[in-house]
Every structure is written in C-alpha cells, then in structure tokens.
Design brief:
The protein is α/β, with parallel strands linked by helices and about 525 residues long. The chain has a domain of about 100 residues: GMP Synthetase, Chain A, domain 3 (2-Layer Sandwich). The protein is about 40% helix and about 25% strand. The chain has 16 helices and 22 strands.
Amino acid sequence: MSAAGAVRDLGVLARLARDLGPFLRHPIGLTAARAQAARRLAGREAQFLAGARASIYGYPRSPYLRLLRAVGCEYGDLERLVAERGLDGALERLAADGVYVTFDEFKGRREAVRGSERFAFTEGDFDNPGVAAHFEVRSGGTRGPATAVKMHLGFVSELAVSTALAFAAHDLGAYDHVIWLNAGVTPTLIYARLGRPPLAWLYQVEPLPFVVRAGSRYLAALGRAAGRRLPVPAFHDLADPGGMAARLAALLRQGRRVCMTTYASSAVRVASAARERGIDLDGACVITLGEPFTPGKRATVEAAGARALVRYAFTEGGILGYACADPTDSDDLHLFADCYGFAQRRRAVGDGGPEVNALLVTSLLSSAPKVLLNVETGDYGHLSRRACGCALGAGGLDLHIARVRSFEKLSGEGMTFVQTDLLRVLEEVLPARFGGSASDYQLVEEERDGILGLALVISPRLGPVDEALAREVFLQELGRGGGLEGMGAQVWRRAETVTVRRRWPLVTKAGKILPFQIER
C-alpha cells in the first residue's frame, strides 16, 4: 500500500470513529422519514441543478461535462431545459442528444462514441468529488480489479429514509432482521439507522475477504462504544438452505417477527427446503435482491408461508426502488423519484440482438458515492405511472417499474458477471480447449423450480465433450481474477448455477447466434 493510500485509509477510519456513534444513537423515525422524503420530492429539480452546478460544471474532470459541451449544453442551457420540460423531460431530451453513459462506458471498458467524437472514461471519473468516505464497499462480480465505492453515512441515512417508507407500506417496522449476504455492511447500517440492527449477518461462501472481516469487527467495536450492538458476520453455507429455514423457524417460535434479506435464488432455496422439511415460515418475510423476481420465485416463497418483497438497487447508485404493496406484477416496484431521475433509451443488445428500453438513472442526492447522469444500470423494464393505493404511492411515489431484466449482466445467486467479460471465455477459451468456434457456445438463462440458472450450451457438432470438465473450465476462467470474481464463481459452483446442455445454440429471427440469450 502506498503512503497516500495508508493516509486515506486512516482518514476513513477516523471519520467513521467520529461519526458512527451519533448515527446509531439517533435513529430515524417514520414521521421524520416521511417529512424528509416529501422535501426531497418537492425539491428534486432544484437538487438536480445544484448537483450539476457543483459536480459537473464546477468540476473540470467530470465526464459529463465533456458530453454536455459536445452537444452545446452549458449550465444556463440546462437550467432552461429543466424549466421548459421538467426534470424527467430534460433527462429524456439529453439522452436523445447523446448525453448518457452505457454500462460498459461507466465501467471504463469501452470508449463512448457520440457522432464523430470519442471519449474514454474510467470508473473513478464518476466519483462524487464532494464525498469523503466513512467506509468503502466493492462493486463487483466482474473480472478485473474490484472497484471501491466511497460510502458516506449521510448517504446511508438517505437510503434508510427510503427503507423506512417501504417498511411502513409493508408493516415491517417492528420486524427483526437477519442478513444472509456476502456483502452485508450497508444493509446492516441501514437497519441500524432505523433502530433495528440485525440479529445476525450470515455470509454464504468461505472465505470472507479479510478487509470485510476486519472492517465488520471495527464497526462492531465502534457500535459497542456507542451502546449499540452490530453483528459480526458468521458463516452459514449456501448449500444448507434447510438450516437457514430452521433458523428462521426458531426465531418465529420465540414470538419474533423476522425478515431475512438475501438474494432471490437463496430465498427460493430456503422456501423449498422449508416445504421439504415441513417447516412453516408463516410470519416470516424475505427481502429479495440481486436477480429478477419472477412469478415462479414468488409462488415458491409464498407456498412456504413467507411474504416476499423485492428491493432494486445497485452498488454505485443505492436503493432505486422497493416493492409496491398493491402490485400488478411479481416485481412491481415503486421507484424512489425523490432520490433519482429516471429515463429510458431504446438500444440494441450486442451486435444485431433484440432492442430494449434501457433504464437510465440520475442521482439527485449530494451524498451519493457516484455522480450519475443518465447512466445505464444494465437493466430494462416496463415504466409506468399509476395510483396504486399503497402508502408509497400515497406519498407521491407514483413511478413504477416491473418485469426488470438485465441485458448487460448475467446474474445468479446474487453474483453478476458482465457479459463483455464472459465473451472471452465463450469465444476464445472454450473453443481453444474443446474445439469449434464462438458460434458453438452460448449461455442461456433458464429458471429451474423458481431459481435462475444458466445453461452453457455446446453444439452437438463438436462430438463427445467432457461436460463436467467444460463446466469447470468455464467457472475457473470466471474466477481467475480472484477476489470478488473468485467468490462469484465459487458461489455458482456450489449452487450448481451453471449446467451444460448439448444442443444447437438458439438462433434469432435474423438468423444470428448470439453469445447470450436474453430473457424477454
């Protein structure tokens, strides 16, 4: 570690030691949360313009400044655009003019090409220059070095406000929480900010990275000094969903109302194991994240007696939405328009693939770790406005999204790998090892008993192939980067997310064989 890095880390630890006590001792109540959300919603256009003035036009290194000036949009032009069209209309117009950032551009994997101009960005270029970190989390699941995302306790408080509104809509305010995630720091602090620190934080795959173990113990020590208990992560194997079902049932027998936060596939595994063992999860709730929550998943969870809520988030942006309490779809979500601006851009997936309405997100919170202006999340879905009648809608959050699917990432068990990184494995590594060409290999999403799986399709024209070896080579290559990449591959291996299918790759209507079959 460099001297500058050591000083930076000491500054992070010192800020956390100074500020965590007040953060924990003064939890956010529902009345205060509703008032804060109302202020955010009423001031969203002013907040957007203030952020653009400070973090884009007032920050020469901003990647958005280059995109905006390429289309002749100075700050005064932006003000007029918002005044004429409103925030949402302004974002749609900017996207149409070329002021947007694709998922790969945001990650620094691909140059941004707008007309005759080209722009090269790095992920660090999008850091919020006004944020001094209290802790860092890692955006990951992709190959290459994991990226640190600077998190401020003020941002966690903003996320807690949104969470409080969602919990009130679903009557979860008095529930106890169990976290079954590899990355549990942020949800731990959100629930603690609401006065409900988790009973347990359990992680799924060994080993937990050293920095996470050390950081969680430091948090717990600071919590004790403030008179508040924060959990230290303990191991509960992904391969033991029955044990997790038994844990939840034991808490229910104690008269507790319990809510587990976990990946969608993990929730399905627990529910299935509960039914197999005759365990009743009536009274339990599951907050699912990380993967599409399909009708099949919901049916499995509810058949075990539990309720299910979907939370939509991404590391760099925060919590974008929570489940509607009066839904029209399995994953009908209220988007937190008080914290974010949303737009969509019609775009093709890959070379000749289907077109989707890519979701674009703009951050409105000054404490957000990244400055986001029309940034793709890698997802698409159906946006609509409607009066649903639930408490979130009554609070003015009438923008919904449903049927959320990814077009840039493949997800399973909460682990994601970016498709551009998988291309090398499909188009170079597997053909070199087992023969054939890129058109002989394909990844296809498939749902098996409510759990998202991935089929590694290998053309039968290659003749005999050791399927177990092909699967293992595929997973080894995904995990070659170590760190989060290695953990993601290990999770997929233990969960048997990837299976080999000997059949002809699927062909589009245009006659093309795409490396990834997008779930429509």
